[in-house]
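Q: I have two molecules that I believe assemble together. Could you output structure tokens for the complex as a whole instead of separate predictions?
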Amino acid sequence: MTDNIAFYRKRKAAEKRFHLYGKIAMGLALFILVFILGNLAGQGVPGFFQTHIKIPITFDTKKFNLQPDQSPVDAPTSSFQSIAQSSLKAAYPNVVERNDQKRLIALISANNGNTVKATLSADPSLLGKTTDIWLLAASNSDLYFKGKISKETPEADRALSDQQLKWLDDLKEKGAVKTAFNTNLFTHGDSRTPENAGFLGAIIGSLLTMIVCLSIVFPIGVATAVYLEEFARKKPGKFSWIDLIEVNINNLAAVPSIVFGLLGLAVYINVFGLPRSAPLVGGMTLAMMILPVIIITTRVSIAAIPPAIRDAARGLGASPVQVVWHHVLPLAMPGIMTGTILGVARALGETAPLIMIGMVAFVADIPTSFTDSATVMPVQVYLWASSPEAGFAEITAAGILILLVILLALNALAIFLRKHFEVRW
Amino acid sequence: MNANKITAHAVKVFYGSKQALFDVDLDIPANSVTALIGPSGCGKSTFLRCINRMNDTIEGARVMGDILVDGKNINSPQQDVVQLRSWIGMVFQKPNPFPKSIYDNVAYGPKIHGMVSSKSEMDALVESSLKKAGLFEEVKDRLLEPGTSLSGGQQQRLCIARTIAVNPEIILMDEPCSALDPIATARIEELINDLKDNFTIVIVTHSMQQAARVSQKTSFFHMGKVIESGDTKQIFTAPKHQQTQDYITGRYG
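A: Yes, here they are, computed for all two components at once.
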């Protein structure tokens, strides 16, 4: 008996050790997750805020170069931008040297025309008068106020000169500097300047791409899975063409995504002549990529339906198609939807195949149709990450955060749907 | 004795290369209860599933021989299987209500066969089917609750009601009480006894007492063959074959 006690004690210790290993592994995974998210948030959250600089703007009638019958409100945006620049110069009258003036103007964004124009449109009586307007700061000024450009750095190594830093400090002292929410991020398409670049074009591009992708992949995937599970008859022990299809579907799920991009390029663009860079082609390419995922998850959820339900329906005289439509599909739907949403989430985060079909182009306009040039969220992140301007680093992280939030929301939706429509026996 | 409703002649069933039934000949009289007994794997369920061609759905299953229902061979290629199953209903071993309301469970069969044309007709049919299955009084206040929320015995009676609703002529029962407690079993047996006036019932059972209680005719299956068929009383009191004798006295099975 004493031997036995030692044996059981040993076994119990082994169990405890095993539990401990599991806890350590989970702790490590959690730590890595928190570290990544914390790092992203630390980098990305400042990207959601922008610096604005208050400047007294003089709506000087002479500056507009108008036709006699033209109202200043109809003047092009560029005229208002030059008004903003000359007003800034006027605020620092002792800056006379041309290069110094250039540096002064570089403190504000080159795309402030619309803001100035909107002020005048709202109150046309301002014409000829001077009023304070909050203008968007240039990316480098923004970085300075966020502490990303330091005075300690030697002048030659930083994007702003000592003189520019002095001007900015001066503005700050006068209370002419404020931080506001970065609305451009949600209202603009891509831009060459970080302070004007927005994520909306990519969000709409992703949305259009996913609409195409889903409307192709859902019917084809579900129909294939239903056929393979419910109608395809296999002879036990013999290799049939259905086995061949199954093997191929399972293999397709493991094909690197860039291969689908090559296929999309070769077939959709070169053979069919569809437009490149378009959400239509992007969606069709991603549909090929997630088709095996949808087929496999749908098959699993169909196979999980108890055979007794099919027997019951058949026993009552339901035809095979009625069995599928009345019983199999409704019962499998939570699983199918979960699989589809997870497939879409995968497609939403995919970059490689889209690069092959040209969705990596710089697109400043927000796409409005399935054949417009567009880009998608992860590709936009990739584009920003490879841009040289320091200001893009922040909005890259901000873009990743937006993408992550959307993916998290999709996963949460998948869980909700599964719980909500789950049938309890 | 009533005229024969079902006549099986030389029925053979193969599952792949394995033969499950060997030349089964069997007559089943109308408006009575016929019990199929025998040890596990003897082919009694396989034979039952031949009568409404449920074996069609099993991959690799082949059925040969003739099964005549009202003189019509149901194994002929002209026979529409879906239509066949509307007049030969089936109740399974484990209660298998659809995960829908009690009402929808009963209404499903009539709906797919287009048997009723209005909601009120359907209401009446659901009510009468549940009454015939002896379930109506217990569930009349909760017809819209899921069928799966009922107890095991109630679920099985719901499955019987669902089968009756299509108005079949024959009801096949595959060990309908094996998942139920003795009280629920007694209720089902009572029900079977009531139903035999209107339906021809074929029941597969493992319980010899049950066969003795509910059936008028009994067939003893062994190793895929019918060893002995006859009146239930005679089978249980004076079996002609040694194997039958051994089985009903509990020597094997």
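A: One point stands out. The radius of gyration of chain B is 18 Å.
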